[in-house]
Design goal:
This protein is mostly helical. The protein has 2 helices and no strands. The mean pLDDT is about 75.
Length: about 60
């Protein structure tokens, strides 16, 4: 339960920071960022899932 609350807090705080940097709460200036294509996003998720699977497999065999 604590992990869920921490994750939710991180999401809320990151959304607030994004709003503050783009003319929102703090009145900052918007910054252009590069877009991520669907293929790059899927590849990044695959890398993360592979790392998680490797760690899980190592812990399972020990």
């Amino acid at each position: 339960m604590m992990k869920i609350l921490l994750a939710a807090g991180a999401v809320v705080s990151s959304a607030g920071m994004a709003a503050a940097g783009c003319g929102g709460i703090g009145g900052g200036v918007c910054v252009n960022v590069p877009e991520i294509s669907a293929l790059d996003g899927v590849a990044a998720i695959a890398v993360v899932l592979t790392a998680v699977a490797l760690v899980w497999e190592r812990k399972r065999r020990v």
